[in-house]
Every structure is written in structure tokens, then in C-alpha cells.
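pls design
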């Protein structure tokens, strides 16, 4: 390679020069340790820059251009306290005349306008007897009850809560009542486990009502298999309705519970999906209320299992009552009656759970969809 050849020639040239210098006398000869010429591949900065190497050197920065865009406001020279310098004069702020003369100049102008006329209060001096008769509370001493009542009125105006007071002392202060209400409201609307608790309550009592209704159906079938014709029991509508509602409510509650925690948030759903989520709970509330009404009617029917009557009373009170001999639709059976009472209780608690769940769902939807 050329570079290797140049390096080899340089080494050989140096060796020859050293041998020749060592053989010759040192008097009048240059120093052998002086600097030698550099190879062509080494760049130096002590000389001029060639045109080929000029583009590799850093360029000088361009001159600055002031910002002259049309939307940029011109620079201001505002200083605090110098806004009204153009209206000031060099003369000191001294009065040119006494104060009395200035008042005389403006007196006519002041009297020309409408002036406020002070109203003189009408007073009269009364004796102590008149005060005792018309203002008896002035002689009363200060009590803690009055201070507490004043604090109660002030708390109503500021917080909107009255609190609970007994004997002039706070049992529940308005501030504590306000904190409790806010905590309960935040727990009811923000806590993710509150709907789950009510959903599980609804699921449990709906399953219990379904099981009791099925057990009543089995007992009625067992009674109807008796050969005695007088020992026959007819099923009632509350039992069938409890079976139908329970069979639909249990999978629905399970699906809605899964949907609330596993599906997308309520704000990302369409309007029909939001409305359907509320209307389904409302449908179950309506049917549960109807089922509870039928259960109470069955429980207090004198011709069914809880009574041993074979007649029916129609009409009002006294002589207006008309009694008919109506055969009993179910003989007195303590087991069926006891289960009917249990079914009525389960349906009542289930209806309350449905109502609470529906109310919480509506409040949460309104809380999430309000504009503020």
C-alpha cells in the first residue's frame, strides 16, 4: 500500500541519515535531534487552510435577526409608578390659596345638588315599670340555652344542618352531621362494593323465595295424592309467580353483577344500554310487588291452609254482612301455612332489596351523567 511504502521509505531514510551523521565529524553540523519533516497524511493547524479542507471546519454563526412578526406586540417600557408621568408637572403639589377660599369656591356647587337630610329619631323617656311590662326579657339573665339556640340558628344558615341538641348541649353538632351525611353520600355513590352487597342480598332472598315456593308446590302435590276427597289443596297464584320470577331473577342478577364489574364503564355505553339497565330493575320491582300482594292475599285467605273456615263473609259490618257457605280450597295444614309465611317474608325482603338496588343505580347514573 502507498502509506506503508511511504512509512518504510521514511524509516530507511532516517536510518541512512543517522549512520552518515555518526561517521562524519560533529563540528559545524546541525543537531541530529532536530525536528524532521511530517508525513503528508498528518494535518497541521499552523499553516493556511486548503480549499479542500475548508468545508470540514466549523462555520461561523449567522447574524441574529430580530423578531418582527406582525402579531408580536411591540416592546413596552412600562415601569411601576410611571404611568401618569405625562400628566405631571414640575411644580410641587402646593395649595395656591388657603383652604377656606377653596371651600367658598365649591360651596354653591355643593348646595345646588340634592343633599341628604338626616332624619331625627323620635324618642321618649320611659320608666322601669313600662319596660317591665313591654320588654320583660331585658331583665332576664344570660343562659346557656340561649347561646346554644343562637349557635343552632347560625349553623342552619351556614351548613344547612340543624344537628341534635339536648339540655343546651350538642349531642350531634351541625358540622359533625354534615360530615356524616357527606361520608354516607360518598360511600353510597362512589364505593364499588355497595351495589355488589345489595345485588348479592337480592340474589340470596330471590333464591330463598324460589326454594320455598318449590317446597310449597311439593307439599301441595303430596296432599293432593291423598285418597280423601276432603283433603285436597289447590295451589295459589303467589306460588307460581314466585317460581317464575325466581327462575328469571337469579340469572339476571348474576349477569348484571358481572356486567357492572367486568364490562365497559357506564359513560362509554350507548343511551339505550343505559336506559335498559335501569328499566330491567324497574320491571323486577313491579313484578315483585305484585307477587308480594298475592302472597299476603293467600296468607290471609280464610279458605286456605292457614284457616279452618268453610264460609265466606261478604259485605260491610253489622247487619249488612252476608255469610255464604263456601267450601275450603285447602284444609288447615300447618306445614303449608308456615311455609307460606316464610315465602311472604322472603318476598318482602326481596322487594326491599330490589327497591334499594334500583334507587342506588338511578342515583349513580345521575351522578355520572350530570354536566358538573
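designed seq:
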Amino acid at each position: 500500500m502507498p502509506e506503508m511504502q511511504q512509512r518504510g521509505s521514511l524509516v530507511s531514510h532516517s536510518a541512512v541519515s543517522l549512520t552518515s551523521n555518526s561517521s562524519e565529524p560533529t563540528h559545524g553540523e546541525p543537531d541530529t535531534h532536530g525536528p524532521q519533516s511530517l508525513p503528508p497524511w498528518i494535518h497541521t493547524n499552523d499553516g493556511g487552510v486548503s480549499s479542500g479542507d475548508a468545508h470540514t471546519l466549523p462555520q461561523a454563526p449567522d447574524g441574529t435577526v430580530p423578531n418582527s412578526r406582525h402579531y408580536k406586540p411591540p416592546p413596552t417600557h412600562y415601569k411601576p409608578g410611571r404611568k401618569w408621568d405625562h400628566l405631571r408637572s414640575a411644580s410641587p403639589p402646593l395649595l395656591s390659596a388657603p383652604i377656606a377660599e377653596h371651600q367658598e369656591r365649591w360651596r354653591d356647587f355643593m348646595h345646588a345638588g340634592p343633599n341628604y337630610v338626616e332624619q331625627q329619631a323620635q324618642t321618649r323617656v320611659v320608666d322601669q315599670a313600662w319596660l317591665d311590662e313591654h320588654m320583660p326579657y331585658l331583665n332576664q339573665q344570660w343562659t346557656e340555652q340561649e347561646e346554644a339556640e343562637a349557635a343552632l340558628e347560625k349553623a342552619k344558615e351556614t351548613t344547612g344542618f340543624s344537628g341534635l341538641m339536648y339540655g343546651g348541649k350538642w349531642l350531634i353538632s351541625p358540622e359533625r352531621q354534615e360530615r356524616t351525611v357527606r361520608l354516607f353520600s360518598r360511600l353510597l355513590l362512589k364505593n364499588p362494593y355497595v351495589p355488589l352487597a345489595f345485588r348479592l342480598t337480592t340474589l340470596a332472598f330471590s333464591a330463598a323465595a324460589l326454594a320455598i315456593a318449590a317446597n310449597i308446590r311439593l307439599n301441595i302435590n303430596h296432599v293432593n295424592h291423598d285418597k280423601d276427597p276432603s283433603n285436597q289443596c289447590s295451589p295459589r297464584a303467589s306460588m307460581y309467580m314466585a317460581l317464575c320470577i325466581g327462575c328469571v331473577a337469579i340469572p339476571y342478577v348474576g349477569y348484571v353483577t358481572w356486567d357492572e364489574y367486568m364490562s365497559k364503564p357506564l359513560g362509554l355505553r350507548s343511551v339505550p344500554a343505559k336506559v335498559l339497565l335501569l328499566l330491567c330493575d324497574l320491571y323486577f320491582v313491579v313484578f315483585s310487588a305484585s307477587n308480594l300482594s298475592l302472597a299476603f292475599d293467600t296468607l290471609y285467605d280464610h279458605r286456605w291452609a292457614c284457616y279452618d273456615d268453610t264460609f265466606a263473609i261478604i259485605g260491610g259490618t253489622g247487619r249488612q254482612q252476608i255469610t255464604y257457605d263456601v267450601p275450603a280450597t285447602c284444609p288447615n295444614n300447618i306445614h303449608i301455612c308456615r311455609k307460606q309465611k316464610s315465602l311472604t317474608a322472603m318476598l318482602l325482603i326481596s322487594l326491599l332489596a330490589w327497591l334499594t338496588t334500583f334507587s342506588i343505580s338511578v342515583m349513580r347514573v345521575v351522578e355520572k351523567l350530570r354536566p358538573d
